[in-house]
Amino acid sequence: MASRAGPRASGTDGSDFQHRERVASHYQMSVALKSEIRKLNIVHLLIWVLMAAQVTVSQLSLVSHKVVASPYQWEYPYLLSIIPTVFSFLALPRNNISYLVISMISAGLFCVAPLIYGSMEMFPVAQQLYRHGKAYRFIFGFSAVTVMYLVIVIAVQVHAWQIYYSKKLLDQWFTSTQDKKKK
User: Fold this and answer.
1) 15: which of 2, 7, 29, 99 is 20 to 30 A away, CA to CA?
2) What percent of the chain has pLDDT above 70?
């Protein structure tokens, strides 16, 4: 009997805990990986909301283009990056392997690919900015290319960790299902 403030069971000094049941390590790992993936999904949602806000504000001309620059071409397909996050959120509560696989594949297609294209699209503008010090597009007074490269650096890290942790989680789920089939 576990009691913090009561009498100890007779005949024991508390060192006989070795025989007690423990949670299997793959379940502990699954919970930890799910937690990390949820945190990364929330960070991705924050990046996505900021990107969607910039595109919406620019397209609806809510503020001057001097305050918020018009979006680069890669930002439109990046808005589809919400799809892998939705599948990831759907996969986690019930350990749905299919949704997690769809999330991983679509993360490469809708998240990483537009970021790679965006870094190539903005490279000549970044080169011009750093060689000549001339910027023509701004986001709240900051060079748009600098801000967007910062977003790309953060987003690449978030998506890389999402894919990595999702792969590790899939491995854990496959390990647990294989163990169940053996029994």
Assistant:
1) 29
2) 85
